[in-house]
Design goal:
Chain A is an alpha/beta fold. Chain A has helices spanning 14-33, 39-52, 55-67, 69-77, 79-85, 119-122, 127-130, 132-137, 142-148, 185-189, 194-198, and strands at 95-100, 105-110, 158-163, 168-173. Chain A folds into 2 domains: 13-50, no CATH class; 54-209, Nitrile Hydratase, Chain A. Chain B starts with 27 loop residues before the first helix and ends with a strand. The chains are: A alpha/beta, B alpha+beta.
């Protein structure tokens, strides 16, 4: 536990936060006064990832794939083009590979070298995805990592780990839960969690929406 | 580089701790550090591989002890100092001490959405043919560059199978050094868990990496 995850965002540790706040504020002032940045562009970047680009994008893609077998076929064959047809793509999502989970194969995505993640579809990655425990153990002991998420797979399920070492970004299409026949895309999208699109969770069941 | 960032298969990091209802950023400074890094890419003129190298190129204990956005901020400072955009004494003083360096472009608010939507595609046209095809057995070369590379240590020397041929892509090892994009064929290479981790591996596990042609040799 030398580098415990909690260490990385210890809310009690106010002095650290203050130091970083001061440092970043000073740097921003320098860049502003030198004319390298425009404040409204900084605000727009933050707003884009806080309000606009998040896991709902990916959930819409997955819901469409569940509802429309032709779209799913296209998505798996050419993820980039299929995603772009829905208006998604760009930064950290220029080249998309889509992986389908089945009763026999479970896909899971990691970036052992940094934090590559399909921003265009899932937004910015959660802390755990960028943390040393996830990055170190997923490639060598995925089942024990899944246990940390409370997820257990049948012993004979094949586990496919995709280490995002290039600019390809990976999106998992989780298994569609039973009892959702005839649901429209909007309702289906509510079942699609962020973790289910990384491979560290399952989609919600209809009863979870109650 | 064989640095603190190359974490695959290393031990002692403890449990993964998902945070329920995690916010996008933990604190205002993270938002600012994130956005400053993205915005400075335009006047700074560096590429994604230079950014990654600037973040990872530090003592491993330092890398592992810093929070995620502390690493980003440190990387940003390095990139700006290297190009004379900001000097160390300015960072220490917390205010500008030297005249600005002329920059070609600054990110305008009205260009943010467009810039994000464009992103940074890495596939390039080529007249060359790929050396390998799907299904072929290949060995990840035992390379140990001290500069930026995207071949993780845990696959080096191991034999896998070409799963997909992904086209010709910007080669990070060259691009990170400012030696040009030097596009190379890129492949998804799949390894059996036991090939990577020995008998203790779960026999149901398969691990793949995306590897450029110079990382691979025929097995």
């Amino acid at each position: 536990m030398a580098h415990d995850h909690d260490h990385h965002h210890d809310h009690e540790h106010g002095s650290d936060l203050d130091e970083m706040t001061l440092r970043v504020r000073a740097l921003e002032t320098i860049l502003l006064e030198k004319g390298y940045i425009e404040p409204a562009a900084i605000d727009a970047l933050i707003e884009a990832y806080e309000k606009k680009i998040g896991p709902r994008n990916g959930a819409n893609v997955v819901a469409k794939a569940w509802a429309d077998p032709k779209f799913k076929e296209w998505l798996i064959k050419d993820g980039t083009a299929a995603m772009e047809s829905l208006g998604y793509g760009g930064r950290s999502g220029n080249h998309l590979v889509v992986l389908e989970n089945t009763p026999n194969v479970h896909n899971m995505v990691v970036c052992t070298l940094c934090s590559c993640y399909p921003w265009a579809l899932l937004g910015l990655p959660p802390l755990w995805y960028k943390s040393a425990p996830y990055r170190s153990r997923t490639v060598s002991e995925p089942r024990s990592v899944l246990k940390d998420f409370g997820v257990e797979l049948p012993k004979d399920t094949e586990i496919r780990i995709w280490d995002s070492t290039a600019e390809l970004r990976y999106l998992v299409v989780p298994m569609r839960p039973p009892g959702t026949e005839g649901w429209d895309e909007e309702k289906l999208a509510q079942l699609v969690t962020r973790d289910s699109m990384i491979g560290t969770g399952f989609a919600k069941r209809p009863e979870d929406l109650q | 580089m064989n640095g603190g960032q190359d974490l695959g298969g290393t031990h002692g990091h403890g449990a993964v701790k998902p945070e329920p209802n995690e916010p996008v950023f933990h604190g205002d400074w993270e938002k600012r550090a994130f956005a400053l890094t993205l915005a400075m890419g335009m006047p700074g003129g560096w590429n994604i591989d230079m950014s990654r190298f600037a973040r990872e190129n530090r003592r491993p204990n330092e890398y592992l002890d810093m929070t995620y956005y502390q690493v980003w901020l440190a990387g940003l400072e390095t990139l700006m100092k290297e190009r004379g955009l900001v000097a160390e004494d300015e960072i220490e003083a917390g205010r500008p001490l030297h005249p600005p360096k002329p920059v070609a472009r600054v990110l305008k608010p009205e260009d943010v959405a467009k810039t994000l939507h464009r992103g940074g595609p890495t596939e390039r046209d080529t007249n060359t043919k790929p050396a390998f095809e799907a299904g072929q057995r290949v060995r990840a070369r035992n390379i140990n560059p001290v500069t930026h590379t995207r071949l993780p240590r845990y696959v080096r020397g191991h034999v896998g199978t070409i799963e997909r041929v992904l086209g010709c892509h910007v080669f990070p090892d060259s691009n990170a050094l400012g030696k040009g994009e030097d596009p190379k064929w890129l492949y998804t290479v799949r390894f059996d868990g036991r090939e990577l981790w020995g008998d203790q591996a779960d026999p149901t596990t398969q691990v793949s990496v995306d590897a450029w042609e110079p990382y691979l040799e025929q097995a």
